[in-house]
């Protein structure tokens, strides 16, 4: 099988400079909406400041990226600003906004045909941070393209468009340029986050853009995709969780080689081992193996986001998309950046902080695979493996490295961690922002 070329980090400089060459002289094309004081489904006025909008990027602004911006409920002018993206690729950031750590939750009741109810999230990260939730790449959520060509993208283009988005967004929100800035995301956004972070770093170093550079401090990732062979660690995870036997695990290692997913391994023993593994695993819910196996646990977001009054409140442009779906499977997107480990290494050398966390019951991106690529960075440990505690209980385990990287597992959490353990993840996030030990 022909391998796709690996996109080299050093080429980002060329990409970034080309993109921004004419951008810095342009006025913002941001559709900057007024403050949203009420949301359908939420009783009473919103007790937080929410705005939404579009930012046009690429040639002739053919790509329109949609965002939700929630200001910090503590001190928005000084608190950190987080750019957050959900994975997929193609999953709307409403996932983070209303299921993970955003300001509201959908009340989890059986759907009765009426508009889903929104309730406050007592563990929202917006208590201590400004969060810019971005629908990326184009075609995700409410982000859309004006032409058929613009609707096609890949990892490199999506990251470059995110950078353009930021530059234009800051033009219309200059009051946030001095805030400590972090890039964040989960799942497949594990590809986007380190690349975008490096792009911002390059632009800051080259002094391209506003006179005041983005105050980049680091990045954070939850249950992140990072390199191709991480899928192999599902076997390690399954063995450790008692899903497969010792004998089957050893047979998989022996007969399928180190890379269990290689397409050129087709011997009978390996095929039999894989079939046995699938029989043991197929009835499990991979995002959280302790949960009931279900196809879609997020229908309320579709009922809510497709409501005409909701879209009017969010200032959605009529006719810009068809039916809204939380995770768009038919996205016109190509995966071209397959391994981000070199980006993490480069960012560490530049002194940026990072928080990497994993739900320890996630079988989609097992915590063992995340541990493996972090270990491969070969940085010395300054705070060795230990439990971290919330309200007197073990919330997970953590380790801190000399490259300013903190790794944490979240006990009992799945894919992704804040959805399953919101109180613990809020404590983790807040402590990390304050540069305190978890």
UniProtKB/TrEMBL annotation:
Keywords: Signal. Residues 1-29 form the signal peptide. One of its GO terms (biological process) is proteolysis. The keyword Ubl conjugation does not apply. InterPro entries: AB_hydrolase_fold, Peptidase_S10. It holds the Pfam family Peptidase_S10. GO terms for molecular function: acyltransferase activity, transferring groups other than amino-acyl groups; serine-type carboxypeptidase activity. The keyword Metal-binding does not apply. Belongs to the peptidase S10 family. PANTHER family: SERINE CARBOXYPEPTIDASE-LIKE 19, SERINE PROTEASE FAMILY S10 SERINE CARBOXYPEPTIDASE. This is Uncharacterized protein. It comes from Daucus carota subsp. sativus.
